[in-house]
Specification:
This protein is mainly β. It folds into 3 domains: about 130 residues, Immunoglobulin-like; about 100 residues, Sandwich (Immunoglobulin-like), CATH 2.60.40.10; about 110 residues, Sandwich (Immunoglobulin-like). Helix content is about 10%, strand content about 50%. It is built from 2 helices and 27 strands. Strands 19, 21, 22, 23, 25, 26 and 27 form a 7-stranded mixed β-sheet that branches. Strands 2-9-8-4-6 form a 5-stranded mixed β-sheet, with no helix packed on it. Strand 13 and strand 14 form a beta hairpin. The radius of gyration is 37 Å and the shape is elongated.
Length: about 400
């Protein structure tokens, strides 16, 4: 009996251990179409429920383990997850084949007791399988994002910010081209070209700020930015400002209208406009309403939109209304822009489907009434004239 009591007392005297859990956001990693001497990378986010900073360790096992590059040790906590970057670089003489590597992520620190003393050594771990598929075929593919044409002051060059994600398996340094247009986008003011500025590794996203020399007076402009190698082409607006001037900034969020209506309905159409500047602007909705065919081609412009001007305060979203009364059924396309303080937004559009039999317009009825009244008056005048002639003839006898 005494040995059992002594054993229980010994267990009660042992320090209490607090378990620590870890997690990762990737169950596995897959590197495909990697060239000999090529490159690919991926990121694993490592998290824990520990409030205190703990140490993590990374181990790799497998035939291609030595081709992987990663941080062997790192520190992380609940409020400070760790971004573990894993890259692979096969040697130039590697055999083209499929490879498997086991990547293990473990806690490396001893756990602590409630009073701060070290307890028993317990390590949490997570295994992430890594697959590597090699190829001998080069592939060029990329995606462009985050494109901005920055506003500038008079006399300064135009700057374009953009990012490129390399989805291929070779390094790329694509060309970047900009063509500048006037405010109405009717006249080209010049084209400039340059390179992205660095060779982007496969699977990597890189950002650049490129500069283009233009001498433009203060006003609003439009620019087409293109990266042909990545198949990107987009049009954006920018301003050239007088030194120290205030920039007006607005956005046409959408054109709001019912998707379905009946002939003869009075349809409200709203340009939803947001003033993103720091002072009020006077905004007007301008555009067209067109009858289109099944393929979306314009058959006839049935209305020109030119709304009243509305004052929109800073950081306010406003609805600028116009109204439309369709007389025949069909599909209508509403296209428009918002003019504000001598600037205009990019165009937006929406579709309205109209059902019902054709109806006569108010103007048509008025025309018929006027014609009828004119005929009636003419008939009355003829009758009066004949009556007078008959009386004159009677008196003459």
């Amino acid at each position: 009996m005494r040995p059992i009591v002594m054993l229980l007392l010994a267990l009660l005297c042992l320090p209490m251990v607090h378990a620590v859990a870890i997690g990762v956001n990737r169950a596995s990693l897959e590197f495909t179409d990697v060239l000999r001497g090529g490159y690919a990378e991926a990121v694993i986010t490592v998290t824990t429920d520990s409030d205190t900073l703990i140490t993590g360790e990374v181990q790799a096992a497998g035939e291609a383990a030595e081709w992987l590059n990663f941080s062997k040790e790192f520190n992380f906590s609940r409020d400070m997850p760790y971004e573990l970057r894993v890259s692979v670089q096969p040697p130039i003489d590697a055999q083209i084949d499929n490879y498997q590597v086991n990547l293990s992520i473990l806690t490396g620190a001893l756990l602590q007791t409630g009073d701060g003393r070290l307890g028993t050594t317990t390590r949490a771990s997570f295994r992430v399988p890594v697959s590597l598929a090699m190829t001998g075929t080069e592939r060029v593919a990329c995606t462009v994002g985050g494109v901005q044409v920055l506003d500038s002051e008079e006399g300064n060059p135009i700057q374009v910010r953009l990012s490129i994600h390399n989805r291929g398996n070779v390094r790329i340094n694509p060309g970047v081209q900009i063509e500048v247009f006037d405010q109405l986008r009717s006249k080209s003011l010049g084209t400039r070209s340059t390179e992205f500025g660095e060779r982007v590794l496969p699977t990597v996203t890189s950002e650049a700020l490129r500069t283009f020399a233009f001498d433009l007076p203060p006003r609003q402009y439009w620019a087409t930015v293109s990266v042909p190698e990545c198949g990107y082409n987009g049009m954006l607006s920018f301003d050239v400002l007088e030194p120290g001037s205030i920039k007006d900034d607005g956005e046409l969020l959408r054109i709001s209208a019912p998707a379905w209506a009946e002939t003869g309905d009075i349809i409200r159409i709203d340009a939803v406009f947001r003033n993103k500047g720091i002072r009020p602007v006077r905004a007007t909705f301008k555009g067209t309403i067109s009858l289109v065919d099944e393929e979306g081609a314009v058959q006839e412009i049935v209305k020109v939109i030119d709304s009243e001007a509305y004052t929109v305060d800073p950081d306010v979203t406003a609805e600028i209304p116009t109204f439309f009364n369709p007389l025949i059924g069909g599909q209508y396309k509403v296209t428009g822009t918002v003019y504000y303080n001598s600037k205009l937004t990019p165009e937006r559009e929406t579709l309205i489907n109209v059902n019902g039999e054709p109806v006569a317009s108010v103007g048509g009825y008025a025309t018929y009434v006027l014609i009828g009244m004119a005929i009636l008056i003419l008939v009355l005048l003829i009758m009066i004239k004949k009556k007078r002639q008959q009386r004159t003839h009677h008196y003459a006898r």
